[in-house]
Write a structure and sequence with these properties.
The complex is a heterodimer of chains A (about 300) and B (about 130). Chain A has ten helices and 13 strands. With about 300 residues, chain A is α/β, with parallel strands linked by helices. Chain A folds into two domains: about 210 residues, Rossmann fold, CATH 3.40.50; about 60 residues, Alpha-Beta Plaits, CATH 3.30.70. Chain A has a six-stranded mixed β-sheet, with helices on both faces. Chain A has a four-stranded antiparallel β-sheet with strand order 11-12-10-13. Chain A has a three-stranded antiparallel β-sheet with strand order 2-1-4, covered by helices on one side. Chain A is elongated. Chain B has a single domain, classed as Winged helix-like DNA-binding domain superfamily/Winged helix DNA-binding domain (Arc Repressor Mutant, subunit A), CATH 1.10.10. The longest helix of chain B is centred in the C-terminal third of the chain and has 26 residues. The chains are: A alpha/beta (about 300), B mainly alpha (about 130). Chains A and B meet through α5, α6, α7 and β13 of A and α1, α2, α3 and α4 of B.
């Protein structure tokens, strides 16, 4: 049992007609870990969640939760918070909580009270009258009050102000410390950088980065060489498998490196630069290097 | 207690390494004394808003390095013996890396070795005034 992944997505492909939304994705999430899924809009994050939860049909591949295909009973232990609210607008928060109490064996009324106070919501207000951020909060209260073993959250902090975004991070961390497994998507790299131990980056439906946040930070570096004169041609650097991208400006050459930064630094040293330095990259740098060019979506925060 | 640790998630340095360095620094400086208890993994994760597995990994490495002892059910404690020496070495490593970066930066700016040494001397005089032997 301990070797079973909490969530296992294997060789998953989803096509809409001739458009391939997700291509051959394999993503396995260890029990008790927090996996952050990053990617530009339209990269396939929501499609993956929907197919994982059987809300849409995968074209190819298998999806398992705790070693079994998703079935109605799975939802006793797994909660999904979709990107767009799936709440009943004409019902109040109190009604939703009552609905939860009747539906879930593990519903924890005390926990629900704490969460309602934490997000400072009124129980008697119709959900349709709440702001987008407050509706997000309602969905999170419902999700966390049943103390699920697995949480799948599609942009759980969208529409929330910075204070409540931090509350969401606290909830994720508290749940993980209690043994829960969390798979969440986000546009806010800072959230993933803090809360996730593992990060997966999708681009155009393909998994382009997958690893623990710490190992990515440890291995992805930028090697900067400064030359006296013009930057020389370094044979095969741009096509080197260890190198993601090469940037030249004036007398400076920067190589964004996936692994073996020391080896790349030694190679550049052979071209007699004035100085060679190996520098750390944070997750945002790693993301931008991986998705390349498509920066606008992550700068806005939402 | 918990306020003695801070980490910077935006840094390119892995969080567990930042945490290890912080703990070793606290032990070397005596902020954390031998036998003193560290926060639980859960408490520290919540306090710093970072992943619990990251804290757990840092604690495992600290135990492996002989800085702390963890006993199931009781918690993690600074080792009574050896931890200070190991932590001093770690502080040396940090200092070496920070000073190394500064010297590299000076070289990149085009400073001659002699001038770099002069500036280094000025800074030593500033922070270790005359009469301070060690």
């Amino acid at each position: 049992m301990s070797s079973t992944y909490a969530i296992a997505i294997r060789d998953f492909t989803k096509r809409y007609g001739s458009f391939e939304a997700v291509s051959n994705l394999t993503l396995e999430v260890e029990p008790g870990s927090i996996c952050g899924l990053l990617g530009p809009n339209g990269s396939g994050k929501t499609t993956t969640f929907k197919c994982l939860l059987n809300l849409a049909r995968a074209t190819f591949g298998t999806m398992q939760v705790e070693g079994a295909p998703v079935q109605p009973a799975t939802f006793e232990e797994l909660t999904y918070v979709p990107e767009r609210s799936a709440l009943y607008e004409w019902l109040t928060l109190a009604d939703h909580l009552e609905f939860n109490r009747r539906s879930y064996r593990k519903y924890d009324a005390k926990r629900a009270d704490e969460l309602v106070n934490l997000f400072r919501l009124e129980r008697k207000k119709k959900v349709g009258k709440l702001s987008k951020g407050q509706q997000t909060a309602v969905a999170l209260i419902l999700a966390f009050s049943i103390r699920p073993r697995i949480l799948v959250l599609d942009e759980p902090a969208s529409g929330l102000d910075p204070v409540f975004q931090r509350v969401v991070l606290d909830l994720l961390i508290e749940a993980a410390a209690g043994g829960a497994t969390i798979l969440f998507s986000s546009h806010q790299i800072g959230q993933v950088e803090r809360a996730a131990d593992r990060v997966a980056i999708l681009k155009n439906g393909k998994l382009i980065v997958d690893g623990t946040v710490d190992s990515l930070k440890g291995s992805e570096k930028v090697v900067e060489a400064i030359f006296d004169q013009m930057v020389p041609e370094v044979d095969g650097l741009a096509t080197d498998a260890r190198v993601r991208r090469v940037e030249r400006s004036g007398r400076i050459l920067r190589a964004y490196v996936k692994e073996d930064s020391e080896g790349i630094a030694r190679r550049l040293s052979e071209y007699a630069p004035k100085n060679v330095a190996v520098m750390d990259l944070n997750l945002e740098d790693i993301f931008i290097n991986a998705v390349g060019g498509e920066i606008p979506m992550i700068r806005g925060g939402e | 207690m918990a306020a003695i640790f801070t980490v910077d998630p935006r840094s390119g340095v892995p969080l567990y390494l930042q945490l290890i360095e912080q703990v070793k620094r606290a032990v070397a400086l005596g902020t954390l004394g031998p036998g003193e208890q560290l926060p639980t993994v859960k408490a520290l994760a919540l306090d710093l808003t970072i992943n619990p597995n990251t804290v757990a990994r840092a604690y495992r490495d600290l135990e492996h390095d002989g800085v702390i002892d963890t006993s199931p059910g009781r918690g993690s404690f600074v080792r009574m013996d050896g931890s200070v020496g190991e932590s001093r070495r770690a502080v040396d490593d940090v200092a070496r890396s920070v000073l190394g970066d500064a010297v590299r930066e000076a070289k990149t700016l085009g400073l001659a070795r002699k001038r770099a040494a002069e500036i280094f001397g000025e800074q030593l005089d500033r922070w270790f005034p005359a009469g301070e032997k060690e």
